[in-house]
Amino acid sequence: MSTQVGTNLERQIRSQPDELFRLLTSESSREQAHAAAEGLQRSRRIWLVGTGTSHHAAILGAGMLQDAGRSAVAVSSMRFVVWAPIVGPDDAIVLITHTGETAYALAARALAIAAGLDVITITKRGTPFPHAVETCPAETSETYTVSYTTALLALAMIAKEMGADSITEDSLALIPGAVRNAIEAPGVDPIHVPERTLVIAGAGPAAYTAREGALKLREGARVMAEGYDIEYLLHGSAVPLDRRDALLSLTTPDADGFVEGVTAAAAAEGIPVATLGEPAPLPMLLVALRVAVERAQDPDTVITGQWADDGLWKLGRPDR
Prior knowledge:
Helix content: 40-55%
Distance between the termini: 45 Å
Largest sheet: 5 strands, parallel
CATH topology of the largest domain: Rossmann fold
Strand order of the largest sheet: 2-1-3-4-5
């Protein structure tokens, strides 16, 4: 993999196998995941709350907890605060915030605590929140990567403790090695940025990998990229695409051939297409890094100009 020497993004990506292994084997991490699962077992319904990348993790985490037979719903932090769902006294909140500083995530936490709800926080190591599952050290690149994959692993560990049939000790143990192999041979060289927009699409959980991959390309490489559920793409969103765009299809799972069918239709329309059989997030992170290098973009400093205004980022904080 061709990389830009010295970027924090590359270092964060390459740290993932070790951080995932540490999370799996650390006694304190296992105790935290077990304690979180015990607390959530008592709840009637579980709300998973996060912003941006953390919202994508919340959506996938809700699916894991549903596999454990629990009523689990993912919502964005702002929606939870401003357009609050009907939350009962026996509900619990799983808040995902890597920095522990995101405005509406903090507001959601404060709101839940004030309501007397159980709150589990998945966050970086060293954040002084009670009932936390700590994942990894603070990221040094604003294109967050390792905090996303370790948050997903933390959610999987909790779901396993709660009885998710699809998550076993053996399957979790394979993750660090699989990530290491993917870093060394990601299979993403055929993926290139088109003249206009790179569209990434998948079905089921891969749809959220598509959204996260598109976000990383926008952040780290400053290219136009969009992530879609492939059914939603077919139902109108594909209409303006032409040969100036490109489609990257995440092809698994695809039991009914839907992803393949939409991909073939795009190719027949003259849209350049590529496929990726790995539905996990890592290849998308590597694409973002490679494209950032090709475009001579800084993937570590993402939020600049008026987008970085401090007052803007404090909107919604409970302590304003």
